[in-house]
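Human
Can I borrow your eye for a moment on a structure tokenisation matter? Give me a protein, with the fold worked out from its sequence. Write it directly below this note and I will take it from there.

Assistant
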Amino acid sequence: MTTPPDLTPPDSPDATAADGEAPRRAIKSFVVRAGRMGTGQIKALAELGPRYVLPYQPATPLNYEAVFGRRAPVVLEIGFGMGGATAQIAKTLADHDFIGCEVHEPGVGALLKLIGEEGIPNIRIFQHDAVEVLEQMIPKASLAGIHIFFPDPWHKKRHNKRRLIQTPFVAKLIEHLAPGGYLHCATDWQPYAEQMLEVLSAEPLLQNTAEGYAEKPAYRPLTKFENRGLKLGHGVWDLVFKKR
């Protein structure tokens, strides 16, 4: 990662400005977390990283055809975690190409390991903040789709402003979607789902593909965490909107 993330703890004295007002912060698509690397992930990073991990280069729009060696619809995924769902979706939608953004090295290593083990050719990775990748390297009106699955819900009310799906960021996403392109979000936190629905429904350039929440599209697999939650009676909400 070429730029240091904001490491100010949420409750530190520097986290709020004078008079109790929150300071203005650039949108971040991630939260810094520690993680241990397994030997398989380390090996995958070393052997497959040079081929599948793209360098972050500001003000350098990607040439998708050059990157993937073909012309196909391109989907951007923001925050793919350990990459299991990303790998499955890329295999299911083999006629699409996928660009995944994830700052956490164990997740990047895990997805590279899956790419190598399962022979998945249509994934490329940025180990960098997705907001900067979007602004600096993704051509406008070029994406067939954007996936944002289970972003940090920031449960505490005073931290809700840190949630990713808010009006300014959604406006950035819309700029990079092609006409007819879709935005697919999913969350297992109902208050965040309600916020997502409100924010996305308020965007005049987006149209909901469902009446409210969408049924889970067939291409999105259930994660182990999601399966466990569903067995415990927890809900999962999908939202799929298309650019007009």
